[in-house]
Amino acid sequence: MGPVKSLTEHLWFEISHRRGYARITDRVEALVRQSGVQEGLCLVNAMHISASVFINDAEQGLLHDFDVWLEELAPHAPTTKYHHNRTGEDNADAHLKRQIMGREVVVAITQGKLDLGPWEQIFYGEFDGRRRKRVLVKIIGE
Questions:
Q1: What are the b/e assignments for 5-42, b being 16+ CB within 10 Å?
Q2: What is the domain-level CATH number for residue 116?
Q3: What pLDDT digit, counting tens, does each position of 88-102 carry?
Q4: Are 93 and 30 in contact (CB under 8 A)?
Q5: Host domain of residue 46
């Protein structure tokens, strides 16, 4: 067993709409290469309670379907239906959408590469955009 290596980086996003999705696989893969880790784990997690990181297919129709489905499950309007919004916020739906899509992913690193399935891609999901937010990437291994 070799010495343990680690890398911690933050990716920053500012999605111009309330909701949006960004494929971040390439950025995470570049960090894995930078880390020099050959065998280990990569944690990618949204550092905001109204955003998500998830893995799925990079197909535009599917991303549209996610958006429609999430809006049906937790519609933005009417904002008055949510107790959270009584605090002066208007983003209760974003918190619920994040809960459904998840906070983080952990991906194995094998032979210096993310060990993803053939169609798997890592996404940042934004549910209350128009401001700067970050994602933590933590890579650890040997």
A1: eebebebebebeebbbbeebbebbbebbeebebeebeb
A2: 2.60.120.460
A3: 999 999 999 999 999
A4: no
A5: 5-141
